[in-house]
Amino acid sequence: MTRLLSIALAAATFFASGCKPQAASTPTPGKPRIALVMKSLANEFFQTMAEGAKKHHAANAGEFELIINGIKNETDLAEQVGLVEQMVAQGVQAIVIAPADSKALIPALKRAQTGGVLVINIDNKLDASTLKQAGLTAPFVGPDNRAGAKAVGEVLAKKLKTGDEVAILEGVTTAFNSQQRRAGFEDAMNAAGMKVVSVQSGQWEMEKANTVAAGILAANPNLKALLCANDNMALGASAAVQAAGKTGQIQIVGFDNIAALKPLLADGRVIATADQHGDRLAAFGIEAALKILKDKTPPADQQTPVDVVTK
Description:
Layout: H1 2-18, E1 33-40, H2 44-59, E2 65-71, H3 77-89, E3 94-97, H4 106-114, E4 118-122, H5 128-134, E5 140-142, H6 145-157, E6 165-170, H7 176-192, E7 195-201, H8 206-219, E8 223-228, H9 231-243, E9 251-253, H10 262-267, E10 272-275, H11 278-295, E11 302-303, E12 307-310
Parallel strand pairs: 1-2, 1-3, 3-4, 4-5, 5-11, 6-7, 6-8, 8-9
Antiparallel strand pairs: 10-12
Helix pairs in contact: 2-11, 6-7, 8-9
């Protein structure tokens, strides 16, 4: 648990030093104001996304203004709704959002769109039926999470034998990307003839995943693998495996390719993850927003790359 705590503290230090929510500035005439609203800034993936957005803006500062915000924890839905409302009040022309929940953010985003704000959805796809019911048009700019997770699961399957017991740590269960990653893992495991003995939520968070993984290991002594829907949870799962004295006996995979996972990939504690290029994902969304604002083109979904990463 000491290493787990040190990783968490490092992330918190990064957030405190380099990724604070930005305050309002005076609008520049003729320059669209774009708001990036992310999920948990305690998660290295979103720190990377924020840094990528800052670099993209620095290289294109003459074209738009950028406001970057995020929430403290993955489950702080009310805080994220509040950020959307704050961005509308600050007069942004577009909101590029990685929603913490695929349904709960839609009413606030609909109010923003009714007020003339363009909404671009990145990272976690908003629920299609709820979007339709609300009358909200929000193009999704992001990867195929199911395909990415399936590809990672296929790497794992080659390390296992037919009939081996595996478990899945999913993210927030109401998040579409969590649902899709779980489905992708299940696709790969079912195709390879593995037995999924447990599916539980680690809520995207390291400490929660550590506790959940420890419980799964205790309840399933024949378990051979843990499939984690993000790398934060893979870190927590790895610490649980180490604490149980089963390092090398339990295979682990993740999703996101964060820097903190690289030592675990290098020494085999985690065998694969998926890189959805978090450093570029916000930039993809920002560019989509600028094109729509400039050319008055109809909003359209845009699929972005996702790649498997191994040792």
